[in-house]
Specification:
Blueprint lengths: L1 E9 L10 E15 L2 E14 L15 E12 L7 E15 L12 E15 L4 E16 L8 H5 L1 E12 L8
Antiparallel strand pairs: 1-2, 2-3, 3-4, 4-5, 5-6, 6-7, 7-8
């Protein structure tokens, strides 16, 4: 079992500051083996992000973009026995929710928006040659947004919803260089 605490400051350039954030996240991870060749993991995260540029005088900072976040991730990795080509393969599933309170200088309603984002990742690592390996990954990512239908941000659902498919090919070459010989 592993515990993590992470603090991050994200700053944009001086012309685009409305998303400057201070993030603090806590995470608990559990790793175990089903067998000698199969491992699984479960990760739970909770955190928050404070919009540090809110109400700083610029027009674009009139909305507080702070949020609370919860995330769960499940992972599975398997190393096949006796297959010289496939070293290992696995998959992970994750779901994250974010709740934005969206306090505003012109706040007439209890404004909010809510994201739920899901990720499915499948991958395989293949040994092509002694020094060359290939990792092939496929990811499906989906985000659904919801907002107060009577608030200022009713348009969020049309703009922030998306579905995306990604395919990666990562080649690795193990190179040994003895520069000081």
């Amino acid at each position: 079992m592993r515990f993590k605490a992470k603090g991050t400051n994200e700053y944009y350039n001086s012309h685009f500051t409305e998303f400057d954030q201070q993030k603090l996240t806590g995470q608990v991870e559990f790793h175990s083996e089903i067998s000698k060749r199969t491992q699984y993991s479960v990760s739970l995260s909770h955190g928050g992000s404070k919009n540090i540029a809110y109400d700083s005088g610029l027009t674009s900072t009139g909305v507080d973009r702070s949020y609370l976040m919860d995330k769960i991730t499940l992972g599975l990795t398997h190393k096949p026995n006796g297959d010289p080509l496939i070293q290992k393969y696995g998959m992970s599933l994750s779901t994250e929710q974010r709740l934005y309170d969206l306090e505003s200088e012109s706040d007439h309603f209890d404004d909010w928006k809510f994201y739920i984002e899901s990720n499915v990742l499948m991958w395989s690592q293949i040994q092509i040659h002694d020094d060359i390996s290939l990792k092939v990954s496929y990811q499906y990512r989906n985000r659904e947004a919801d907002s107060n239908p009577f608030g200022e941000f009713y348009w969020v659902e049309e703009v922030k919803d998306f579905s995306k498919h990604v395919l990666w090919f990562d080649f690795s070459y193990d190179l040994v260089m003895d520069l000081f010989y």
